Amino acid sequence: MAGLHLSNTVRVGEKRLTVLQHLGSGAFGDVYMVKDKASFTVYALKDILCTDASDIDNVIREAATLYQLSHENVIAIEGADRYSSYDGVHMLILTEYCDGGNLNERLRRGSSADQNYLWMTQIAGALSYLHDKEVVHRDLKPDNVLLTADEEVKLADFGLAREFTALKTMYQRAEDDSWLSYYTQYYMGTYCGTPYWMAPEVFACHYTEKADVFSLGVIFFAILERTYITLNGKRFYGAFKRIGHSQEKVGLGFAMTKNPHATINFSSPTENSTKQKMQELTLRCLEYEDDDRPSAAEVHDELHEDSAERYCIII
Fold it and tell me: Annotated catalytic, 52?
């Protein structure tokens, strides 16, 4: 992949940007820190190589609709554009820059109960907002929960992820079965391991926004329990199970496709009423049947109500 270089100046819409630093590589491309030459504002720029350009204009139009989203815990999309090189067509997505890393990295360190509660409330609020706007995330995991310098949540990579995957597989508006087949094969062989956070119904290719709620429960479990697997030397936090006599751990959702009665428990009970409520809410999000899970709005409302009760007790 040709990609961008530190000497590059790149244009996204009306913005002329200088590439400052390569921040990392992921399943959907490379991410760079860039600076607007006019305003000196720092942004994050994602560069995605698309081997089939036939549908890329539709993706850009879809990105434009996401510009209308505005929530304090959802990453702001600032622009989208494209450029061609010898290796194909590159799609550029410009977003606000978060200098606190991502939640997966942050979970390696300790955090207070109040911080955990804040993360859970903010993630649930962001997801509730997306669902209210009829945007399904489809790739909710700790790596896609970005943090500001003050450790405020910014939910990222929403809405567009499925379209990126469809482009990379050289399908035009791939159906769920073709998308998931490639998606699973692609990620199982890389460090990303996205299926570890998928709801069981996603593997059967019939799912709704409640699949996001299952993934939300996996993130909650990771925050409260700090369980992880190691892939290629990197820790990935989530909710994991062993199947049969195998020593290899899989995601809870995948384990449920083999045994719908598969469950997961917290390592130790707690007498703290607030923590107990958070654990119970987490397990409800991780129900096998999507109808048994609360909506993202209900999750957020419960957390918000509990916050109000805690505040009253303090007063």
Answer: no
Backbone region of residue 32 per phi and psi (left: phi > 0; alpha: psi in -120 to 50; beta: other values): beta
Is 313 a residue whose pLDDT tops 50?
Answer: no
- CA distance linking residue 109 with residue 213, whole number of Å: 25
Q: Give the end-to-end CA distance of the chain in Å, rounded to a whole number.
A: 58
Tokens representing 95 are 């977003």
Instruction: Give residue 245's pLDDT.
Output: 77
Locate tokens 């995330």: which residue? 137
- Per-residue pLDDT reduced to its tens digit, 40-96: 999 999 887 776 655 566 566 666 667 778 999 999 888 888 888 877 778 888 999
DSSP bridge partners of 155: 74, 145
Q: For the chain, what is the radius of gyration of the CA atoms?
A: 20
Dist. CA 147–CA 41, nearest whole Å: 18
Candidate list 47, 139, 157, 212, residue with the active-site label: 139
Q: In whole angstroms, what is the distance from residue 310 CA to residue 290 CA? A: 30
8 A C-beta contact, residue 192 and residue 203: no
Q: b/e string for 229-264 if b means 16 or more Cβ within 10 A?
A: beeeeeebbbbbbeeeeeeebbbbbbbbbeeeebeb
pTM: 0.84
Q: Are 314 and 308 in contact (CB under 8 A)?
A: no
